tRNA (guanine-N(1)-)-methyltransferase
Amino acid sequence: MSWSATVLTLYPEMFPGPLGQSLSGKALERGTWSFEARNIRDHGIGVHRAVDDTPAGGGAGMVLRADVLAAAIDAATVSDDERPRLLMSPRGRPLKQADVRALAEGPGAMIVCGRFEGVDERVIEGRGLREVSIGDYILSGGELAAMVLMDACVRLLPGVMGKFESGEDESFEGGLLEYPHYTRPAEWEGRPIPATLGSGHHAKIAAWRRSEAERLTRDRRPDLLGGPDLLTGADLLTGAESKRPGGK
Ligand code: SAH
């Protein structure tokens, strides 16, 4: 069975959006992956199909109702559905390449896109949603975040990338940022390509790339050098508490 994503959203027409183009679009046509965007509003209340209500305790904004969202989740769940249920959320576990790899190796995901102030807390617990964040900033809805997550997974599915772009060298895969790239012309605006890269000496090239990757990571993302944090993607799939020292 191919990797499948079920997206629950108030804006199903946003999908597949950019995922219908390029690598992911071709893979979608070939059936390497599939997706279904389901409208949460189909389960809305009353003639107006209301999906949200005012926050208990007062305050600004609206909250997605637990009963409505749960009905949408239940209707989208197929029998023996082993896909993790994810909720895109700025409070969630920050998505890492290891999580993406683990998700890509699994059967797919059900992805809930929040809107407004977010969703009623009770549905997160009641339906076992695992919150995932794509970064420390606030989007207006979970749809773009879901697309980011899906794009990152789909490119790793077998046959989606060419064999020369297997992705193994990429930033974050080995816990380091990627080394710099160059291509023709050999000299551009007085800037030559680093001599080692033209040497044809494979071991020296590999050593140069490694040391550049280490230098870039030290300069820009010393946090990546801190430990094995990036190298386990199990939490998103199993929902287990992370055992990172000093962290949650
Ligand atoms: N009031 C919330 C933000 C709601 S933003 C808070 O302060 O935490 C509306 C929706 O956009 C969220 O429910 C979520 O689904 C999505 N969203 C916003 N920022 C996101 C992020 N960084 N990562 C993943 N999803 C995000």
